[in-house]
Amino acid sequence: MPTAAQSGVTSKKALLITLALILLGAGLAYPRVARRLGRYQAARHASAAVAQVAPRLHDGDLIFQTSQSAQSRAIQLATKSEYSHCGILFRRGAEWRVFEAVQPVSETSLTKWVARGKEGQFVVKRLRDAATVLTPAALQRLKKAGEQYQGKNYDLYFGWSDERIYCSELLWKMYKTATGREIGQLQTLREFDLSHPAVQAKLRERYGKQIPLDEKVISPVRMLESAELVTVR
Question: Which residues form a coiled coil (predicted)?
Fold first, then answer.
């Protein structure tokens, strides 16, 4: 028979093991709980922001955000801008949707799009003379210009062909096709700041030693800062 002292030691060990298991379980569960809480808070913030801005939106508005994708930081460093992703807004029934070049080119609800960006921040821009240029017929042409890219793969290599396409390229080509307007000045890859190690690492990952420095590129910030656009939000 164990003595009272031995029983006490055994009970303490059992208690410590139980506490350790509880703490271990809590430690393993915390990241999942934190992620769920973060998504919930982001969704609530996005819903409130969209409800506030929705009455001011027009079909064809352009929307910009800081993406949380793996390549976002490299884009920000190379273009010297916090904005690394963009899309175009269209109203579908009672809901605002964002047509965008992701993988693949598709559309998503504005609320989900906002929640996906860093800290739920976004900027909305509009063609400066949209009231006269974006007639119903022009908007139909704009939508049709986008439809040809629906389902295409995202262009990780930022090429200018239509085989694959990236976010700002999609918007630029849609507006060029539908209205003849060029929103943002085209650049070549060599015009960006490619000196940061994070940018160089991404270039090596994508291109190896054959970096296409003379490839035409349109960046989100070039469109964002274009004189062709005015700020809505």
Answer: none
pTM > 0.70: yes
Beta bridge partners of 64: 86, 123
- Which tens digit of pLDDT belongs to each residue from 208-224? 999 999 999 999 999 99
Whether the pLDDT of residue 2 is over 70: the answer is no
What DSSP state is assigned to residue 153? Answer: P
Residue 41: the pLDDT is: 85
Distance of CA 228 to the CA centre of its chain: 22
Pick 57-231's CATH classification: 1.10.1040.10, 3.90.1720.10, 3.30.450.70, 3.40.50.1970: 3.90.1720.10
DSSP letter, residue 106: E
